[in-house]
Amino acid sequence: MSMTEIGYPEPERVERKLPANLRRDQPLVPVDGVAGRALMAVIAILTFLAALSAGAAVLAARASDQWRGAVSNEMTIQIRPDSRRDIEQDVARAVAMAEKLDGIEGVRAVPKAESDKLLEPWLGTGLDLVELPVPRLIVLRLKAGASPDLAAFGPALRREVPTAILDDHRLWVRRLSAMAGTIVVSGFAVVMLILTTTALAVAFATRGAMAGSRDSVEVLHLVGADDDFIAREFQSRFIRLGLKGGAIGGFAAIVAIALLGFIASRWSTGPEAEQLQALFGAFEIGWAGYAAVVLVAVIVAAIAGLVSRVSVRRYLRALA
C-alpha cells in the first residue's frame, strides 16, 4: 500500500509546498542573490577604505619615527652672512666651540656649494647665488643618550659669533610627534567609523533577510529547531559574505598601496619626489602595514558574523 493510498502526499509534492529556502539542498539564507552581492560589494568598499586608512596611519607612524630619529640625534648652527664680518672665520670659530662641547660626537661645516644645492628644488639649477645672503650651516652629531649643556653653550656662542643661531630641534621634535600622533589617531578614528558603518549595514541586511525568511523560520520552529540553530545558519552565511567582501577590499587596498609605492619609486628623480620622500620616506608601509590591512579584513568578517547573530537573536525574541 502506497503513501498516497493511506492519505499522505508524495514526498516531492510536500517539498514543492515548502518555502524555497527549506527545500532539499537549499540554504536557509541565500547569499547569491542581488541583496547578497550588493552587501558584499558594500563590505568590500568599506574594507578598502578602512585598510587604506590603516595603511596611511602606519605610513605616518613610520615616517615620524624616521623624522624623530634623524632630527633628535643632530643639532645645527646657522651662521648668517654679515657684510661687517668674515663668515669663514665665524664658521671656524663656531666649529671650534662646538667641538669642545660635551656630548658631541662630530661637527661638520656644510660647504657653501652644498648649501647652495639645497636651494635648487625651489630656485632651480644654474643660478649664481653669490649675491644672495645664504646662511652657512654647521651640523653637530650627538652621542647616544647625551644631553649637552645647551643653556650655557647657546649664549656663549652668541657672544663669540653674534650672527650664529643654535637650533637643537627640540621644537621640531615636539611638532613632529604631535603631528604624527594626530594622523595616527585620525586614521584609527576613521577605521572605527568605517567598521561601525559595516556593522550597521550588516544589521540592516540581516533584518531584511530575516523578514524575507519569516515563513521559513516559523516552519523551523514548528519542527523543533531552536534559536541557536537558526542563528548559526544566518551567522555562517554572513561570515562568508564578510570574508569575501573583506578579502576583495583588502586585496584591492594592498594592490593600491603597492602601486603607489611603485609609482613613487619610478618618480624619484625629480625634486618634487625628493621632497615627498623626505616627508614619507620610501613610501613603504612594511610588513606591519600589510598585517594591519589583513587584520582589518578579518575584523570586518568577524563583525559581519557577530552582528548577524545578535540581530537574529533579537528578531527571534521579538517574533516569539
SSE layout and pairings?
Layout: H1 11-17, H2 34-72, E1 74-79, H3 87-99, E2 104-109, H4 112-117, H5 120-123, E3 136-142, H6 150-160, E4 164-167, H7 170-212, H8 214-222, H9 227-266, H10 271-280, H11 286-319
Antiparallel strand pairs: 1-3, 1-4, 2-3
Helix pairs in contact: 2-7, 2-9, 2-11, 7-11, 9-11
How many helices? Answer: 11
Strand content: 5-15%
Order of helices and strands: HHEHEHHEHEHHHHH
The helical percent reads: 55-70%
Structural class: alpha+beta
Largest sheet: 4 strands, antiparallel
The whole-angstrom Rg is 33 Å
Tally of strands? 4
How many discrete structural domains? 2
Uncertain spans: 1-16
Name the overall outline. Answer: elongated
Fold and architecture overview:
By secondary structure, this protein is of the alpha+beta class. It has two domains: 27-68 and 174-319, no CATH class; 81-162, no CATH class. It has helices spanning 11-17, 34-72, 87-99, 112-117, 120-123, 150-160, 170-212, 214-222, 227-266, 271-280, 286-319; strands at residues 74-79, 104-109, 136-142, 164-167. A four-stranded antiparallel β-sheet has the order 2-3-1-4. It is elongated and about 100 Å long. Residues 1-16 have low confidence and may be disordered.
